[in-house]
Design brief:
The chain is mostly beta strands. The protein is built from no helices and 11 strands. A hairpin with a 6-residue loop joins strand 9 and strand 10.
């Protein structure tokens, strides 16, 4: 049973910063990839950034140079967002790919989302 606790969204002026957090938990689970997606009104959900258990990161072009993804040993993933723009306004969703210890099948699970609004 996976649980994701997201926090850190809010309202910020253009040029400001926000830090999103997502704590993943679940007995007997190993979280391989953790990341963030976002969905703006009228648009498809899109990748923002991901990080593997080994620390390999992947960023959308729109996030490169402004956002930094990281994770800690307690399976909390962070997204530090700097130099925010109005076009970053969206609901941000935490997402994890996990498997049960000793098993090979990987599952995908997403959070409820947290609103980020950037005013001009």
């Amino acid at each position: 049973h996976v649980q994701l606790a997201e926090s850190g969204g809010g309202l910020v002026r253009a040029g400001g910063s926000l830090r999103l957090s997502c704590a993943a938990s679940g007995s007997g689970l190993r979280f391989n990839v953790m990341g963030w997606y976002r969905q703006a009104p009228g648009k498809w959900r899109e990748l923002v950034a991901t990080i593997t258990s080994g620390g390999t990161t992947n960023y959308a072009d729109s996030a490169k140079g402004r956002f930094t993804i990281s994770r800690d040993a307690k399976n909390t993933v962070y997204l530090q967002m700097n130099s925010l723009k109005p076009e970053d306004t969206a609901v941000y969703y935490c997402n994890v790919k996990f498997r049960r210890v000793g098993e090979l099948v990987e599952f995908d699970y997403g959070g409820q989302g947290t609103q980020v609004t950037v005013s001009s």
